[in-house]
Amino acid sequence: MYKPEKIRNIAIVAHIDHGKTTLLDTLLKQSKVFRENESVPERVMDSYDQEKERGITIFSKHSSISYDGYKINVIDTPGHADFSGEVERVLGMVNSVLLLIDAQEGPMPQTRFVLAKSLQMGLRPIVIVNKIDRPHANPDRALDLTFDLFSELGATDEQLDFTYCYASGFNGYAIRDINDERKNLDPLLDTVIENCPAPSGDLENPFLMQAATMHYDEYVGRQGCGRILEGQVYKGQSVVRVDRSGNKHRGTITRIEAYEGINRVELERAGVGDIVTIAGFPDIMIGDSICDVNHPVELPPIPIDEPTVSVNIMVNNSPFAGKEGKHVTMNKLRDRLEKEKRANISLRIEEIEGSQDAVKVSGRGELHLAVLVEAMRREGYELSMSKPQVIVKQIDGVKNEPIESVHIEVPEEYSGAVIEELSKRKGEMQSLSTNEHNITSMEFLVPTRGLMGYRRDFVTLTRGLGILTSILDSFQPWKGTIPSRNRGALVSGVSGKTNAYACFNLQSRGTLFVDPTDEVYEGMVVGENSRDNDLVVNVTKAKQLTNVRASGTDDAIVLIPPRKHTLETALEWIEDDELIEVTPNSIRLRKRLLKEFERKRQGRV
């Protein structure tokens, strides 16, 4: 067990894709956490399968490094705004943060969010200017912009006098001066030990800890994770849990776990300053304090920002229901969502009045909800989802909606089209600048409603060369009507297998979502119309065969590849009268009221 003065607790925070996970990978490798013959995958901290596929961090990850007689507990945090709830809770466990800044891009929207939270909690961030090896890196400019951001966010004089160093996580070196020799990451670890305060507290005081995050284990149940604020804890110790309401619940510590490298190890005893996971209270919640039996303490609650977007999750009642999924009933869906809620407290699950086969699930954004549903479909669940809706607040009797701060970087020639489109979506420009490389940077305040469905158009508008990131800014009065999707749907009017001949003839009508030989049913959305109205079509129509061959009638059929939807693109595309059918093997779109699309001749192609 380390003494408090030999422990350092830090979190790595940054905007998405600024190199947090890569830097931590290299730190772990250089710290000899792995055996010499051990196979170490790239981005080892991204252990969740969706993190590896998407290339982003979704859940905060704990690890520890032993260096020069010190134990450094390091927490890797998500960079995407939808998972910022993970960052907020983690900051309560650490004594400082490593704020990573891209040497080329400088501070970005998520940087502003995590820095503001850190400064409010009185932490003194250590700034790491990362990726200094990039061709257009400008570390001096990045540092100047970072100082301006500190000042803008109201940093104290002590916080403005931040320590910084330069690094390249990919190449595995850190330097305190730009002209220093580039060897390894030891200068970064030395900077942490010198500038990160040791945790406060005394080993002789009565035990006290506050649960900052949750873990859930099938065998142990719900576990609370946090930093030990005072005293020591041992396995089998009788303690008291004090909840948000001040109620006291006695219990026994059944398991204590900490991290060595990236592995969780069971401990018999732990002391002040260390970050541990404790089991023994099945009903423990974020912010609950665990204390000595004779010295119960009620600590201030940990605030958790509210969700901004909700979807209705329903039983799948399409004609293909139950063909691919293993868990298809509402009871199974409810049980799975309740299990998720035990560890993921950013989610909110509510019953819908008058509906037995649907629940309302609220989260921090479309990606947050899409990650949950993607996990469920991989576990064999089958369900339907509605179009996401923003969560509206009544403030002083006025209807308020979430507004997002949007940062955009595009080549200068596309900036006019971006400004025009965001203006239609009630966006308000805050700043605009163009650098020497003709890249225009823009800041907007846009209603969350206005961003739904826009990212797909943004990629098309900028030929894939634009960068768009956003984060919740505030709740503001309702901005009025915002134009929705300007193209209708191609809806199948028959059931059966799609046909290449029919698909070829429908290509001129719009963009198809299905391949030849795909199974379809009446009311299923099979494509996007090139006009603004819905069109009932027949994608199963085969060519009329005769025994006569004529010149010009047997042309080769050339099909344009269909647009295949992911969960995120499907959530962006659908309208209020449409649903997403999610199964382990398929993502289909369909009209909410299938009876409206019974077999008709009128309007069918």
Describe this structure as you would to a colleague.
The chain is of the alpha+beta class and 605 residues long. The protein folds into five domains: 4-195, P-loop containing nucleotide triphosphate hydrolases (Rossmann fold); 208-292, Elongation Factor Tu (Ef-tu), domain 3 (Beta Barrel), CATH 2.40.30; 309-390, Alpha-Beta Plaits (2-Layer Sandwich); 400-477, 2-Layer Sandwich (Alpha-Beta Plaits), CATH 3.30.70; 489-597, bipa protein (OB fold (Dihydrolipoamide Acetyltransferase, E2P)). It is built from 14 helices and 36 strands. Strands 19, 20, 21, 22, 23, 29, 31, 33, 34, 35 and 36 form an eleven-stranded mixed sheet that branches. Strands 8, 9, 10, 12, 13, 14, 15, 17 and 18 form a nine-stranded antiparallel sheet that branches. A hairpin with a 2-residue loop joins strand 2 and strand 3. Helix 9 (366-378) crosses helix 14 (567-573). The radius of gyration is 27 Å and the shape is globular. Residues 599-605 have low confidence and may be disordered.
Please describe the topology of this protein:
Blueprint: E1 7-13, H1 20-30, H2 49-54, E2 61-67, E3 70-76, H3 84-90, E4 96-102, H4 109-120, E5 126-130, H5 139-152, H6 157-160, E6 163-168, E7 173-175, H7 186-195, E8 208-210, E9 213-217, E10 221-230, E11 232-234, E12 238-242, E13 248-252, E14 255-260, E15 263-267, E16 269-271, E17 275-279, E18 289-292, E19 309-314, H8 330-343, E20 348-351, E21 358-363, H9 366-378, E22 383-385, E23 389-390, E24 393-395, E25 398-411, H10 415-424, E26 428-434, E27 439-447, H11 448-451, H12 454-461, E28 467-477, E29 489-492, E30 496-497, H13 500-506, E31 510-512, E32 519-520, E33 524-529, E34 535-537, H14 567-573, E35 578-582, E36 587-591
Parallel strand pairs: 1-3, 1-4, 4-5, 5-6, 29-34
Antiparallel strand pairs: 2-3, 6-7, 8-10, 8-18, 9-10, 10-17, 11-16, 12-13, 12-18, 14-15, 14-17, 19-21, 19-22, 19-23, 20-21, 22-35, 24-25, 25-27, 25-28, 26-27, 29-33, 30-32, 31-33, 33-36, 35-36
